[in-house]
Automatic annotation (TrEMBL):
Residues 467-501 are annotated as: Disordered. The keyword Signal applies. It comes from Canariomyces notabilis. GO terms for molecular function: hydrolase activity. GO terms for cellular component: cytosol; extracellular region. This is Putative 5'-nucleotidase C-terminal domain-containing protein.
Length: 588
């Protein structure tokens, strides 16, 4: 863990179940490779994961079984370690590559900015040469304009001990927000291509499909159907991401799909046991046993799963990686405090609107103050921000350079359309917050403006009874230390997936999740009494421009991209950090 990271707290644990073939899975790490310095449950860093994987590989070797590591993208954007450097990712590439990953693919965050996609192609793809797969993604060389696959389309290999033949794919969901130096081909088109049709006819023991795709999204269902139609009995394993939740499901009795959360809070575990070699049971459908575990990313858990302790656990390589991270954090001055947050502001742990809601804070305090264009400052305006622009809670205490990017990593700016009839402008927020999609040249799902979790979670989850102790009747529960049969539960994930509610490796007290709207809105410089203004400036984060234009059009406003102008200089992130510097005490 990083210097200054909080110590993990023991909790009742569930063990890992090993099989002939085992996997560790990370996804949507978004630059959190230093771990969560302020949260004990997730305070291990990428170096600790390197040590963990080394011990787990040794155990696999000792027992003659196989262990593979998977990463399903969105490694960037969302933490100072990636975002605070110039250019972005100056330290990240060398840190990330220290983990040996057997199958790796791209997420949408590697593609929003052309420079990020360049970095992916020039650094991460070669760093993971034979293991990087891009089944439906092309890269366009900026010098020649040549379009080429981002990486190999699929990978065929054999495992070390069990000698299992594997055909692996690496997909991205049907993402359309990429910069123009990449091309994402829709999955339903890709699976018709000759190379894919050939690959699913390869003789193999298993198919492994990794993807930056939610495990319940149509893209995975389509891939599953295409493979299964050709291979009635072959096991198919899916590793997904994007939605930022812990999740597992099975598409049929010989398939299994795992999603492993977000922000290096979770290391996913999947194991498969049974007759895996196709020659062991040709054509026979002998039962397979799948297991999954969501490992909280902290040292106590890693000690528990490896049977080691603080002295025996860190490997030389792991220690070196932790040191690399500490050096990078220092060089980036990530602990520099812009101000001291007077309290904790939550994204979804408290209701919106509410006094502890980060969105109410933005709406009531920040947006009115930062959305000011000197030459139009007296003009009434509606200021709209999408809730997905905010990526994490703000904890009471120091608000640092790191926190800035953790909360708001994007390069979005405040844009506006001047002098929109108020009667039309005031209807926009209702359309943006409507369920479903606004019809446009392409279907624009309104949920893409909100936080990714709400792609999977459709109603608030409120834990009315928070258990006080770990003593309950779960057969798999194991006390962490001898004689400790009543360990107080820490707050954390209490995952319920299609397999059951025993997936989390640590038994936690539940955390509430309150749904948030797609967008929030502040009314600024409105007359305090009398008639509403005839016209207003409609100010919004430029990320939601397509939705705003479509909402205006649906209300009879013939507005186009040319009508959208920059409202204030500076990114939203810079404006928010500036607000904090001005309004919160410097020191805690
Ligand atoms: O510039 C941006 C880019 C993204 N967003 C928000 O993020 C989600 C996508 O997040 P994932 O981590 O890929 O799931 C997107 O739907 C937006 O809500 C943004 O606000 N600005």
């Amino acid at each position: 863990a990083q210097p200054g990271a909080v110590q993990p707290v023991p909790g009742p644990m569930r063990d890992l179940v090993w099989g002939k073939l085992n996997f560790l899975h990370t996804t949507d790490t978004h630059g959190w490779h230093a771990g969560h310095l302020q949260e004990s449950q997730y305070s291990a860093d990428w170096g600790d994961y390197v040590s963990f994987a080394e011990h787990m590989r040794k155990r696999a070797d000792d027992n003659g079984v196989d262990l593979l590591l998977v990463d399903t993208g969105d490694r960037v954007e969302g933490n100072g370690l990636y975002d605070a450097s110039s250019p972005k990712g100056k330290y990240y590439y060398d840190i990330f590559r220290q983990q040996h990953i057997d199958i790796i693919c791209t997420g949408n965050h590697e593609l929003y900015q052309a420079a990020t996609a360049d970095g992916e192609h020039l650094r991460t793809v070669p760093n993971f040469k034979d293991n990087y797969i891009a089944s439906n993604l092309d890269y366009i060389d900026p010098r020649t304009g040549e379009r080429m696959p981002m990486a190999q389309r699929y990978r065929k290999f054999q495992t070390k001990h069990q000698k299992l033949d594997i055909v692996a794919f690496g997909f991205l969901f049907d993402f359309t927000g990429n910069a123009n130096n990449t091309v994402v081909q829709p999955v339903r088109q890709t699976i018709k291509e000759t190379w894919f049709q050939h690959a699913i006819r390869e003789k193999t023991d298993l198919f492994v499909v990794i993807g930056h795709v939610g495990v319940r999204m149509q893209e995975f269902q389509d891939i599953f159907r295409a493979i299964r139609d050709q291979n009635p009995a072959t096991p198919i394993l899916f590793f997904g991401g994007h939605v930022h939740i812990r999740d597992a499901t099975a598409y049929d009795s010989r398939s299994f799909a795992l999603a492993s959360g977000r922000y290096l809070e979770t290391i996913g575990w999947m194991s498969v046991d049974g007759d895996l070699k196709s020659t062991e049971a040709p054509q026979a459908k002998t039962a397979l046993r799948f297991n999954r575990r969501y490992i909280d990313n902290n040292l106590l858990g890693m000690y528990h799963h490896t049977g080691l302790d603080s002295k025996t656990f860190p490997t030389e390589h792991g220690r070196n990686v932790s040191a690399m991270i500490a050096k990078a954090r220092d060089a980036l001055d990530l602990d520099y405090a812009f101000g001291c947050s007077p309290k904790t502001y939550w994204m979804t742990r408290t209701p919106y609107p509410g006094e502890d809601s980060i969105y109410s804070w933005l709406e009531e305090e920040v947006l009115p103050d930062i959305a000011v264009n000197e030459s139009r400052k007296d003009k009434p305006r509606l200021v709209i921000a999408n809730t997905g622009a905010i990526r994490f809670d703000i904890f009471k205490g120091a608000f640092t350079r790191d926190t800035t990017y953790i909360v708001s990593p994007f390069l979005s700016v405040l844009a506006y359309i001047p002098d929109v009839p108020y009667a039309m402008a005031k209807k926009v927020i209702r359309l943006l917050n409507g369920a479903g999609q606004i019809m446009g040249p392409e279907l624009m799902d309104n949920r893409f403006m909100a936080i990714p979790e709400q792609l999977a979670i459709h109603e608030s989850i409120i834990h009315h009874q928070v258990p006080e102790s770990g003593a309950h009747s779960d057969a798999q529960q194991k006390p962490l230390a001898d004689g400790q049969d009543r360990i107080p539960l820490t707050e954390g994930y209490t995952t319920r997936d299609d397999i059951g509610s025993d997936g989390d490796d640590t038994i936690h007290a539940g955390i509430n999740f309150y749904m948030v709207p797609n967008c929030i809105q502040a009314e600024v410089a409105f007359p305090s009494s009398g008639d509403p203004p005839e016209t207003v400036d409609l100010v919004f984060l430029d990320f939601i421009t397509p939705w705003v234009l479509m909402a205006l059009r649906l209300n009879g406003g013939d507005y186009h991209r040319d009508d959208v102008q920059l409202y204030v200089e500076g990114t939203f992130t810079e404006l928010m950090a500036g607000w904090i510097e001005k309004n919160w005490p410097r020191r805690c």
